[in-house]
Amino acid sequence: MPSTAAAAAAANQPDELIRRLRSGDGAVKLKALRELKNQIIGNRTKKLSYIKLGTVPDVVGVLASSVSIDPDPGSGSSLIVESAAIIGSFACGVDAGVKAVLEAGAFPHLFRILSNPNEKVVDTTARSLRMIFQSRLAPKYDFSKNENADCLFSLLNSDNENVTGLGASIITHSCKTIADQKILSSAGVLQRLITLLNGSLYQREASLEALTAMLSSNSAVISNFVDLDNGRALSSLINLMEDKSPRTRLLAITCLIVIGRTCSSYLQDIELKNKLILILVELLEEPDRVGDEVPFALANLIVDREDLQRLAFEANALDKLCNFLQRETLQPKRFEGLLLAIAELCSRLESCRSKFFSLKVLNLVINSLKHDAADVRTVACICLRNVTRSVKKLSAGYFMNEMVVDPLIQLLHDSSNSVQVAALSVISNIVVDFANRKSIFLRCGGIKELVRLSQSMDPTLRLNAVLALKNFVFLADNSSKECVLAELTVSTLVSLICDPEPKVQEQALAFVRNILESGIDSIEPVFTEDGIIINAVGRQVRNALDLNVCLEGIYALGNVATGNELHKEAVMHQILEPQVNGPSQSVLMNFLQGNNSQLRVGAIWCLINLTYPDGPGTSSRIARLRDAGVIGQLKKLADDPCLDAKFRVKTALAQCANNNSCAK
Amino acid sequence: MSLFWIVLGQPGGLEEMATSKKLITREEWEKKLSDVKIRKEDMNKLVMDFLVMEGYVEAAEKFRVESGTEPDIDLATITDRMAAKKAVQCGNVEDAIEKVNDFNPEILDTNPQLFFHLQQQRLIELIRDGKVEEALEFAQEELAPRGEENQSFLEELERTVALLAFEDVSNCPVGDLLDMSQRLKTASEVDAAILASQSHEKDPKLPSLLKMLIWAQSQLDEKAAYPRINNLSTATLEDPRDL
């Protein structure tokens, strides 16, 4: 019967369906709604095409008119159920759908319908609202308004589990600030959520998510929670770690991680820590969403916690993670999570790093630097950054080869800023290279790219690029240093020393300090172009408010002071100038009289180099320093509480005294 | 877990008999068994769980009235679940999708794998009915976009479309897709998803208890001769053979 098939196909056409949606006949409308619902549920493509056709406002229109008129309770409620279900489906997993639903004004209607006596109507509406609240685009629910708070409590206290679930979802979505957490906690919401932990699976999971939102980074609310029911709240959470449902296990663990990261005392028990890790490692096997989220939870648990990293390592977490990484057809989210968890495991412990190298996944991580998803490229860099912290491998020059260096240099052109920054952080590690294979990096064009990014408008990029350059010239041979300086140019270096960001200044000065570290030949290049570099360094030492900038500067000057007479005189000139914002004496005196022992030590080192015997100008320098009150100040430091300072002062004073006796 | 210990009969002191098996007579065994108290309500709950999960609505209703055991889900929803399951078993996939969506529109929206398998089953049914053109159009319109979203769906789709390439599908490498077992597989996925949406487990408890019984008996066989249950349907204790 080709004719009926064709007719049916025509009736399924979108514009025909939309026409019937607008029909005045309730039965026609209902049928069209049902067709629309069955077409879009589960089908992203269809959702997008109907959203484009402007169908959402039509559906919201049907909902609104069915609520306000409701001529016949029977068919009226079917229209509400169908239209509410469609609105929920449009909002499920499609940002454009959430936007369209909100713009069409569905929100207030849906909230109003929650008080409808028909259970099916309430079920569907609560589900649809929850779909909307699961999107980041949903408006923030303002708990500080009294009517909103009342509404939330009535939702949480409902007998209908979809409605209580909606209440919990609203908290999960909107409880973001300490103020929100405080309002909800003092209104007794914690207590209610804990009761819901004993409800159905669905209520339990919704409540766990809401609890996590309420406890996150808020030690006051956490201690409220822990004190509830004589600590029974916490123990029921711990029990849920062993629930039958994998998702419940993960959510309970996520909540415990949030508690432990804020108040570590609740996560001290070694058995509990072990259990957390074992269950997480076991959950890695789960398919779908749970399995996707597990590595992120694991990473979150162990970040900056060496004790937990060690436990995870002992639980074979690294083997498992690397094993999963090698599976085929991993979704990008899962891949990203695995890389991140591996990265955190290798962030501190050398034992983890050696294990990582023995598991032969390095190539896989390097290949994922070319992954389509920017998030994956970023975490691949973070993972490499952490494994390249291995001094053992670094000193063997293990990473300094084209296979590693080339893809990293390419990432310096990446369209994503965070990828570029992450790539720079790996490069910063591998260019340290104690095996003197730095020329490979030069040959691959890496320095050129670092210099380019050191002039970026983005301060983070500038900072990380200069940091990488600084590490490159660390213990480099003079010809490599000259290449870098030539590429960077003197004027760029000066502007980096005077960068608006103190952190960039600090790294630029540290770069100069590293350049100057290999004897007199390395000092000469800093004196080109009328010494504008040393002038810039001196200016920062005198002007900067940031301690680290002053420190790097004074040490750079100290290195210059190891040079010839001309160099030493230049340093004398810089440090005997007064500080701009300080008392009207020299910056050197300020440092020597100051409270900061690091600055005192830096200044004393400078003096040791300036008064080093055997120089023709040494006596005259000592005389000038004495006239400036410096030697007198040094004597006062003979009993410096900082042992390093005390020891260096001894050396400096001995040199001065020695010179005196020789002169006489 | 308590039932597991019942079956083992709390075998205290059996360890020292490691070399020669201990003989437990029927009297001793029955005495041990009668020492274990099982609450009637727990037994009833197990029965109710079985009836609900397997979809025996009328039996469950009668049992509820007679034993006073409250089921943990609304009995009316069993009918809906069974109807959706049955529709897939009969090859009416479109009908099944509508039923699932009426029951709870969230299920197929949040379960892409189930949604794909239902659409795949629809394609299989079209191919089975020889509607080649319609099948191709359906694969292109409805299934191809899902394949783009997920690599493993794409592979399954390719396997399914391959059915069209064979004259004699009953004898081709992907012929298993046309088997009844494929429908049953999809149907049980529907069943499990609906149960999950009701916060329910997907398998009844009774069969897993029986599995535990078999395991526990085989463990005990190593150590003792005792009145065994060999026929699970009658559950009669059979006297141990003499050692």
Automatic annotation (TrEMBL), chain A:
Record GO biological process: proteasome-mediated ubiquitin-dependent protein catabolic process
Record-linked SMART domains: ARM (SM00185)
What Gene3D superfamilies does the entry give?
A: Leucine-rich Repeat Variant
Q: Main localization of the protein?
A: cytoplasm
Q: Which GO terms describe its cellular component?
A: cytoplasm; GID complex; nucleus
- Check the record and name the Pfam families matching this protein: Arm
Compartments reported by the entry: Cytoplasm; Nucleus
InterPro entries hit by this protein: ARM-like, ARM-type_fold, Armadillo, ARMC8/Vid28
ARM-type repeats, residues = 403-445
What keywords were assigned to this record?
Cytoplasm, Nucleus, Repeat
Matching entries from PANTHER family are given as: ARMADILLO REPEAT-CONTAINING PROTEIN 8 (PTHR15651)
Q: What is this protein called?
A: Armadillo repeat-containing protein 8
Automatic annotation (TrEMBL), chain B:
- Pfam families in the cross-refs: CTLH, LisH
Per its UniProt record, what InterPro entries does this chain match?
CRA_dom, CTLH/CRA, CTLH_C, LisH, Ubq-SigPath_Reg
Give start and end of each CTLH domain.
77-134
Q: What are the transmembrane regions? A: none
From the Swiss-Prot or TrEMBL record, give the protein name.
CTLH domain-containing protein
